[in-house]
Amino acid sequence: MKIKDKKSNKKYLLVVYSLLFVICLLYAGETGRIVGRVTDAQTGEALAGVNVIVEGTELGAATDADGRYLITNVPARRHNVTASYIGYEPVTVKDVLVIIDQTTTVDFKLKPTVIAIEKPVIVQAEREMVIRTAVATTRTASAEEFNRLPVNALTQLVGLQAGVRQDETRGWTHIRGGRYDDVSYLIDGVAARDAIYGVLWSSPKPTTEAIQEVIVITGSFDPEYGEAMSGIVQAVTKEGGTKTSTKVKYTTDEMFPNDDLNFGYNQVQWTLGGPIPMYNRMRYFISTQYLKTDDARDAQYKLPAPRGEYAAEGKLTYNLPKSLPLTREGLKLTIDGHHSVYQWQAYSHAWKYWQKGLHANRVRSYKANLHLNHMVSPKVVWTMKTGAFNTALLRAPRDFELEAEDTKGFWGTLRKLGIWDRYLFLGEDWVFKNPRGLSVKEALLNLYQGYKPGTMRDTVKYQTKVNGRDTTLYIAGYKPLGYYAEDYMMNNPYGVYGLFVSEGYSYFHYRTTQTKYIKGDVSYTPNKTHEFKTGFDLTQYRLQEYTNSMPYDPNPFWESYDAKPLTFATYIQDRADFEDLVIRGGVRFDYLDTKAKHRVFPESIGGSDRIRDSMIPVKKKLRLSPRLGISYPITERIKFRFSYGHFFKNPTFGDLYSSSEFTALDITRRPNLIAGNTDLSAEKTIAYEMGFDAQLSDIFALDLTTFYKDVFDLSGTRQVQAIPSYRMYYNVEYARIMGAEATFTKQLSNYWRASASYTYQIAKGTASTATAEYSRGYAVQIDYPLDHDMTHSASLDFSLNFPSDFVFIPLRDFEGSILSRYNSGLPYTPTDIRGTQTGDENSARMPGSFVIDSRLNKSIRFGNLNMSVFCDIYNLLNAEIVQQVFTATGSPSDRGRRFSVGEFSYGWRVGDPYYHPARDFNHDGYLTQYEMYKSYLDAYNDRYSIPTYYGPPRKIRFGISLGI
Amino acid sequence: MIKYKNHIVLFIVLCVGLFIIGCGRMPPEPYWNWTKEDSTEIQKLVNVWRDTFKTTFEDTVINVSYYLESDRDTLRKIMRRDLRSFWMIPHYWPRAFRHYVSDYQMADSFIAVKDTTVMVRLMEKMVGKIVIYTDSFTQYLRDTNIANNIYPVYASTFTYGESIVENEFKATSVRYLHFDKKSGNWQLKKITGGARIFSPSEQDYEPYLGLCTLRTVTKSYPIFLRPDTLKYGIQRFYELDSIMNFPISDSNSFTVRLFPYEATVTNYLGYSPRIGLIFLHHKGKRYDMRIPYATQLSLPFNTGWNSVIIEIVPWERLFTRSGYNSFMWSLPIKIKP
Questions:
Q1: Which site among B10, B19, B33, B113 would you substitute to test the A interface, given the most A Cβ atoms closer than 10 Å to its Cβ?
Q2: Strand A792-802 vs strand A784-785: parallel, antiparallel, or unpaired?
């Protein structure tokens, strides 16, 4: 297409830009830069005008008079970079790794030649072991790590990085001693986190095979990143390549005959990507993942805690033709979408014999993004992104009767085939397909009307106020301990009451995070030294949370809110690379409009009508955070770095909005309530970091880092001096974290590679979580070691890699890795058997753990077909990993309570309320004191042999992958 | 050495493989839980034994019409005397009872125990009506004098046999059985000392009967509702052969003495002044145990299984506007030839 004149050109531009803004077809791939110098291999002289191109893209640059070049806006992944010049042999450097926001250096030395050579000389890229432009600790892991290491999920890979602790029990990620909700979680630059509670486990994750690169920034970060204080986890997903490729991967442990190794684990992954046929400019990438396992709890042994996942995502990229004036330098449009469902059954040892009453969970997520990346000129790149993200968590007990009947239709067929057991929840139809036309909120608050006959006992009405209106809650009538043992508390193999939950249901909880966002940025690179960048981020949330107790709670814990906060952020930053000094500085401005009201007199809830519910709108929150980072490369391979920053993060929205719709009267009815505080300010961290990175040789590198963080205004609860008193969230907690990290890396050479890291850390503060004071019952004024304060952690990753021309044929294309980790014990507060504290807060430590995981991988190539068989072994030594202990003994197996026969009442006869045949060992219809004692002791030992206090045993999985 | 290199590698791989496999951690062995087959088998046995209980132990006695075996004049005397204590509330005094049971519902429940035994609660819910043929009630003014009446009349009196009172009747019979599979097949091993019949429902423990004795000329056998390990009673399990049995040589005639107590489960020792009526069912007859104002009666027993059903009704049930409730024991007694 030819543009005839300037007028039509402008029109064209106007139309295109308007279209882009109006329909928000905006996205930017996450990018980095490539710089380098091209010299004559013989003379060492700089070569000017050499073409350097990034293969598979339309990016490239020509060297200047000094032989230097700069290519900006390079997608973060591995690339082949080729330099060609007339009279010289072209050279291609293979597998150049480009990291988001960082600069990769690729130098070329071209040999002169007298004949024209078209086929370039291939050179393997030497990975820069020191990221010269990184001013803070930045860990990267590429897609290859998933093939090399025994990990199969993004969070596992993140957890391997120094300074990161993955709490598998609760699904929390702690970075450098921060709280679990201090981490920002981005997929292709877009936040993808359950905004209400800030946890990753209820957020959608990219499929493993779709991950191109993972960046974990554990130090300070640039102003363009917000809503985080501890670190940034950024995943970049794959795009379709220049050739069509596909891969199928299957992992299982079902071949083992016994429950010691057979966890019913089955994972299938499939990817397909490439150019659209006949049109290479448009590329697609599809990735799907399916997982089914009988036990996802990773406890001491196999538990009935099944989990199922399916996810599908796709990405369509379109590099517009360069023939258009607007796209001369490159304009890329990307559309991507994601849908996933995760469902899993909770396990609680107290509910061991009444599993059907315990809740299960389902997370259903949808995402759609439209991204635009436009290189206006080699110096100016702007990107825009817009999209929507919706994730919903439903937590309730399953309706097993309904599931048994669900055998027809698509889902019923999948159930019959054992592929997918779609969870159907008690009360789900009532809440979401209400026959009376009630809204979700109304139906949930009147949940008990929705029970099927026979699944609940007689209901009683419970009057309460919702939004100031009288509302009727229907609560199942409580039936006291009655005549027949099997109906009540003794429904366990021991016939003992009071130890195991044996009736009732947990609760119904539903929450959604709906996000619509638009963000954009412009980077301007006036020269090879500076890169200015400015941008904005506007996000509109809709957060809904509804909770209600299930039967047997006369005063239900209900929750209901529908909030629509709005956040806006803008920033400006400069990444200045003076070669011997890298400075990254800038400032970020954040704005929060909670669109809510707050109670003027929270301490007067017992006052008159005028005072107690007197509300005023919450003021808009504004804040400014400066950031500065300096890297001082002494040589190309050694650098010092320093960074300093102020980081703000809003408390998780749950702390703001929980119970925000409660009237004062509602609060008085719930004395153990934690009221949300819509007027909470942002939490603040001031972080300092100093580091020393050194590449000791071509294959060895070392980095040392020390850090210090002051964390202020953390969300925490305090008692409101009202009558009756209750608790509310305030910005009252504080933490102080310091530590040091050391990492030693050896690149692959002589068939082996290794990486060792060690972290020393002290994380002290006044509350480990926002609800710590509530759980404890009192506030702590003196810093104490936080629950996640892991003093020492160390890891060693050792791999053997044999190439396809290795002398010993069976080992050709064989890779074996061993990943060993040591973690010192976490703190706990010692108590006596009655729970009375006997030492300072968190003054005792649990035992540490040492775990070795391994992966063995053998690849075989048949023409274009690449087949791999692999074996993952987790906890190779079958070590006992202690995750929790009894506070009276410090042991995971001994609660410390001792019994004597004389403590037990006796004399119950058959037909009495407390008689149970399981306690009657000789079945004479009479319970003696010894029978009471012995049966209780058996039950007690079972109740407090809690498998979830331990980490997983040895697990072995085999897999095969086929790819073209 | 090179010759054996592959063998060595294979050997090492094999050793590592053997070390790894079989060294996981097994979950605890799950406790035995019954299967559908167990359930079906036990249900079959239960049905067999239910019929046996009905025919042998005469549990169906409740559905038969009983006329009180009593003396009219004595009855009137007792009635007048008792009514002095409760003169302010209208009463009736039954002369004949009849239960009409219109519907039975079996509600058996099984409790499986980890030692491969099952306790079955054999429950039968009965619904119907109870018809009571009574003296009619006449209310006089206070201190009315009637000529030729040797007893003083207060506010009320009865005229002999002129009213029929119908009341709703609900009752639940409960008996416990103990099955064992240790020999390979399910077998009934033990039963409780007798069934208990609660009216109107099993939740109602009152009135309460704590003890009765069977007396021969020379011996006395106490039967407790809640026996300990030494005593015989209702709420205990007995092997089928050791259920209450007596040799024919001992006696074929027992005197039944009853000790009714008012009680809840946790307080069963106090004598109840609230026990109004006590009946004894035996061989199709219903005896009023308060005649001659003593809670004992001599009954002839035959060789084999005999059944004695004791029914007690509280005073309140004699109020004309009250519902009906009662508590019964069904005692199986075996007389050996």
A1: B113
A2: unpaired
State the smallest CA–CA distance between residue B229 and chain A in angstroms.
7
Q: Where are the alpha helices (DSSP H) in A375-514?
A: 400-405, 409-416, 428-432, 440-445
Interface test with B, best of A490, A496, A920, A926 (most B CBs within 10 A): A926
- A954 vs B24, B174, B196: nearest CB: B24
CB atoms within 10 A of CB A174: 27
| Contact partners, residue A590, CB within 8 Å, separation at least 6 | A226, A567, A568, A569, A621, A622, A623, A624, A625, A648, A682
Interface test with A, best of B25, B123, B175 (most A CBs within 10 A): B25
Minimal CA–CA distance to A954: which of B26, B251, B142? Answer: B26
Could you please report the per-residue DSSP string of A36-94? EEEEETTT--B-SS-EEEETTSS-EEE--TTSEEEEEEEESSEEEEEEE-TTB--EEEE
Question: What would the mean pLDDT of A573-599 be, rounded to a whole number?
Answer: 91
pLDDT at position A760: 96
> In this structure, are residues A743 and A703 in contact, taking their beta carbons and an 8 Å threshold?
yes
Interface of B with A in 92-121 (CB under 8 A): 109, 111, 113-115, 117, 119, 121
A255 touches chain B (CB under 8 A): no
User: How far, in Å, CA of A186 to CA of A174, rounded?
Assistant: 16
> Residue A559: enclosing H or E segment and its boundaries?
strand A559-563
Contact A657, A545 (CB under 8 A): yes
- What's A160's DSSP letter? T
Could you give the percent of chain B with pLDDT greater than 70? 56
Residue of A nearest to B195 (CA): A911
Whole-complex ipTM: 0.81
Q: Do A256 and B21 touch (CB under 8 A)?
A: yes
A 479-498 near B (Cβ less than 8 A): 482-486, 493, 495
| DSSP letter assigned to residue A805 | T
Of A607, A539, A532, nearest in space to A567 by CA: A539
Between the alpha carbon of residue A353 and those of residues A496, A919, B30, B117, the distances in Å are 12, 16, 11, 18
Please write the tens of the pLDDT for every residue from A217-265. Answer: 888 888 888 888 888 998 989 999 888 999 999 999 999 998 999 999 9
A917 in contact with B, Cβ within 8 Å: yes
Residue A143 has pLDDT above 90, yes or no: no
Tokens of A423: 């969870």
* Contact list, B117 vs chain A (CB under 8 Å): 917, 923
Which residues of chain A lie closer than 8 angstroms to B114, CB-CB?
Answer: 493, 918
Place of tokens 């704005």: A591
* A290 vs A342: CA distance, rounded Å: 10
Residue of A nearest to B6 (CA): A810
**What pLDDT, on the 0 to 100 scale, is given for residue B267?**
42
Joined tokens for residue B71: 């003396």
Q: Which residue of A has its CA nearest to B179?
A: A923
Distance from CA of B51 to the nearest CA of A (A): 22
Which contacts of A168-172 are long-range, i.e. CB under 8 A and separated by 24 or more positions? Answer: A168/A298, A168/A883, A168/A951, A169/A883, A169/A884, A169/A948, A170/A201, A171/A199, A171/A200, A171/A201, A172/A199, A172/A200, A172/A201, A172/A788
Contact status, residue B191 vs residue B175, Cβ threshold 8 Å: yes
Q: How far apart are CA A690 and CA A787, in angstroms?
A: 26
Query: How many Cα atoms occupy the beta-carbon half-sphere of B291 within 13 Å?
Result: 18
**A444 phi and psi, to 5 degrees?**
-70, -35
Rg from Cα positions in chain B:
29
Q: What is the pTM of this model?
A: 0.83
Confidence of residue A480 (pLDDT cuts 50, 70, 90): very low
Q: Please, what's the b/e burial string for A601-626 (b: 16 or more CB within 10 A of its CB; e: otherwise)?
A: ebebbeeeeeebbeeeebeebebebe
